[in-house]
Every structure is written in structure tokens, then in C-alpha cells.
Amino acid sequence: MPAHVWNGAAFKKVLRKTMWTGTAWKDIKSSHIWMGTEWRQVYSTGLQVSAFTSGSGKENWTVTLPPAATGDLRIVVIGLVAKSTSAMSGWTKLGEDSSWYDPGVAVYYRYRRALDPDTVTLNVGGYGDVSTAVAMTIPGAAVPTVAATAKNYSSGAPGPHTSPAITTIKANSLAVRAVVGNPDTPSAPTYSGWGSPMTELVQQQSIAAASAGNNSVMTVATGSAPVVGSQPAVTVNPSIPMPYMGAAFAVEPLTIIAGMHLTTQHTLVSSGTQTQIAGWSADQGSTVTSDRLVIPVTKTGANVEVFLRYQTNSATGTPSLQWRLLKNAAATQLASQTVSGGGVGTNYEVVLNYSGNFVAGDYLYLTCAGTFTAPAPFVIPGVDTFVRVT
């Protein structure tokens, strides 16, 4: 399942994404840009799919996920016929499974974490046979919150087939639409002619079905939704009449009000008391003072996300480290996580989340407490260790 990138006019297949920095080739992180000395996170109001994969399989089959940087939104759209999906650990479900012998569209999403694998197993089961899937990466996107479906299960459902209207609540969103068709007899139907403003991302045929009527085809398209409000239904034309389900959802851009990333390796201190993590730099438009991220505005219902990767370096013991997100001089705890494990050169990750209110001038910082045998663990700087407030 190859990955693709947008070259300004079309999606092109790539095996690896790199760029020349002037002295060396560097791997491209999908939501970051090379500043000459380091990767910096990109903050943009425009959303687009940076990479995608697609494929087809039967029960409990593995999908290769497209490249993504830590904190990027990954979405998997699954086209089903007479099947339902089981929970995918760490992923959130949006959309509908299929029912009886009818088509369905299930959608799962997750922010990529530093130690996430590049594959995911789709747990599907039911009367049906094969399924299709399209996985995509959308940097700078908030999790989808708007979804709708349209369907016509008549065996002779003529074209066009409909992806329903949705209502966006933030400007410069990205609409994502999928239509799954299921012919009554084995064939290879296709879709064509997505209406404006949608552009087809990929069309995926199912692999050969074991029994008649279980094959399917799924088309997935994306389109800009620059204005807040109703995004009208859009249609696409099937090559033959057949039952179908159309789904639509929207992803909104992250509005980041403050952010910082770790630029200097921080070696932990073996202590039973909390020690502040140092070595942070401000992201664009933000302020970091004494390794504390300053909140610039008063905001109700802000979200804080912490992504952090660290490495243990001793073959002795399995240290238990408590990581805390704190606010202001009062050291009000907003979130905490305890991670246990050791080993030489072993990587671990910390993910902290908090939702609440801030007053301009509030500040955030991170601490860690734990005892261990030298050589000490250290927090790894770079694109896997950052804090963002939205």
C-alpha cells in the first residue's frame, strides 16, 4: 500500500519523503518544516491530506498507515458489506457499520504518537466477505466531530449516489466524503464525476469475494470548506445501479494559541521529588520563560496536549517515573502519568491531556519524579516532544 504526497497538482506515489537542507538529505515530517538547523512545527489554516494508503482484505486484516509526524491526525475509512467493526485500541470511531447485506462506512481516527506502529489491524466480522479501507494523514487538524450518512439499499439504486450535507463550525475546514457501492452480482463497478468542490483522493476495489454479491467499491474524496455553515450534499456517479452508503465528515484546523518544543536533551535526576523539565523553546507566536509556556489569552475550554518521548539507559531495574503537567506558581496539577520500564536504549512515551479554562498570563510546565540506577534516562528533543494549547 504505497504512500502518496501532493505535488501541487496531483498525488504522486513515493517510497520516502526527503529534502535537501543544503548539507544533507533530511526526512520530511508531514507537519514540520526544516528551518536550517531543526524541524519546526507548521501552523496553517489550510488543511489537506498529506499522504494516504488504501487496500482491501477480509476479517482481521492489516492496513499500512501513511507517514505522519507525532501529533498528526490519522483517519481510517472502512468500506463494509454486511460487516461490523470491533474497537481498535486507541482509536475513536465515527460513522456507521453496515447492516444485514448492505453497505456501510466506518471511520476511525487517532492522533499519531511517537511509538505508534505504521500498521493497524482492522477487526471486522459478520455475514459479509471482504472490506476496503483508505487511511490518510491530515496534519494540523482537529479530530472530526461532524458526520452524516445517506443510503439507498435498493438493489437497483440508480445514480447519482449521494454523500450527505454536513454543517461545519470553523472556517477553512476540510470535507472528507466516501461512497461504498455493492453490486448484486460479481463485477468491478466504478465511480466517476464527483461534484464540486470535491476531488477524488482514491478509489479502491475490493479483492475477489468468496461468494456472489460480496464484492464492493469505495471512492473517497476531499474538498475545502472555507466558509462556516452548511456544506451541501455532493453526488458521484456509479457505473451500474447498486445499493450504496455515502458518508461525510469534516475536520477543522487546529487553532494553536501557544506551543513549545524541546530543543535540548534533558537528563533526568534520580529523586523522589518533582524536578522541572528544561530545554524548551517557543513555537512561533508563543512565549517560553524559564521553561514555562505562557498562555497569551483568556480562554474558556482550552485543550492542552503533551507529547513526550524519553529513553532509559540502565540495564538495572525498572524505574517508575511520574510525569506531571502543572500550572502557575501554585503547581496546580492538570494531568499526570506514571510510566514504568527500563532497559538500555529503550524508548517510552508520555501523552498528557487537559481541558479547562485559562487566564492570560497563566503558565504551564512539566516535571518528573523517580529513582533509577545510572546512567540516567533522558528526554529526547525534537519533533516527538512538544506541548500545544488549542
Structure description:
This protein has strands at 3-6, 11-14, 18-20, 25-27, 32-34, 39-41, 51-57, 61-64, 73-81, 83-85, 92-96, 103-111, 119-122, 124-126, 131-138, 146-152, 161-163, 166-168, 173-181, 191-192, 199-205, 217-225, 229-231, 234-238, 244-251, 258-262, 266-267, 271-276, 280-282, 287-289, 292-294, 299-314, 320-327, 332-340, 343-358, 363-370, 378-379, 386-389. With 390 residues, it is mostly beta strands. Strands 26, 27, 29, 32, 35, 37 and 38 form a 7-stranded antiparallel beta sheet that branches. Strands 28, 30, 31, 33, 34 and 36 form a 6-stranded antiparallel beta sheet that branches. Strands 7-15-9-12-11 form a 5-stranded antiparallel beta sheet, with no helix packed on it. A hairpin with a 2-residue loop joins strand 30 (287-289) and strand 31 (292-294).
List keywords for this structure.
about 400 residues; mainly beta; seven-stranded antiparallel β-sheet; six-stranded antiparallel β-sheet; about 0% helix; elongated; disordered N terminus
